[in-house]
Design goal:
CATH topology: de novo design (two linked rop proteins)
Oligomer: single chain
Strand content: under 5%
Order of helices and strands: HHHHHH
Number of helices: 6
Length: 167
């Protein structure tokens, strides 16, 4: 009996050791997460600005392509517009504290410009909901987005030149 009890105790000890080893190996220890800070070098700023301008150009291309497509055109426009906004926010994260401070009003106006352009997307939904044909509403939306993003991009370039972005 003593022999069986010692074997059972040994097996339990071995099982417990293996279980702890397996569980201990699978435990993930938390590492402190440091915020990701975008570099504020002139090259990073130039690259970020070019990405915004390229994304705005893509949006303009999409407005020309989907103006006559009532199928999935609206969703593509929303996606491309959001990509412009995301790239613009990435550009702002590369600005130095001095650029952010001296260009606060210009950046606020650019943000407001994007908000106004985004309003055209809402206007499309309202127009369709109130009975306007989706083809006509989409054509109006494409024309408004194309012109709005063109003017916004010109202002962005002018403001970035004044703030010496990428210099």
């Amino acid at each position: 009996m003593k022999f069986i009890a010692s074997k059972v105790a040994g097996l339990l000890g071995l099982g417990l050791g293996v279980s702890l080893g397996v569980l201990g190996g699978s435990v993930v220890y938390a590492q402190p997460r440091w915020p990701v800070v975008a570099p504020t070098t002139p090259m990073a700023q130039r690259n970020a600005l070019n990405l915004v301008v390229n994304q705005a150009n893509w949006l303009q291309n999409v407005t020309r392509l989907v103006a006559s497509d009532t199928g999935g055109g609206y969703g593509l426009l929303v996606q491309q517009f959001q990509a412009v906004r995301d790239q613009y926010n990435s550009l702002k994260s590369t600005l130095t504290p001095q650029q952010l401070a001296s260009g606060a009003s210009q950046l606020a106006e650019l943000d407001a410009g994007l908000d106004i352009i985004q309003g055209a997307l809402t206007d499309y939904r309202i127009a369709v909901a109130s009975g306007q044909s989706s083809a006509a509403a989409l054509a109006n939306l494409c024309q408004g987005l194309n012109e709005g993003i063109r003017v916004w991009t010109q202002q962005l370039k002018e403001d970035c030149r004044q703030l010496r972005v990428g210099w």
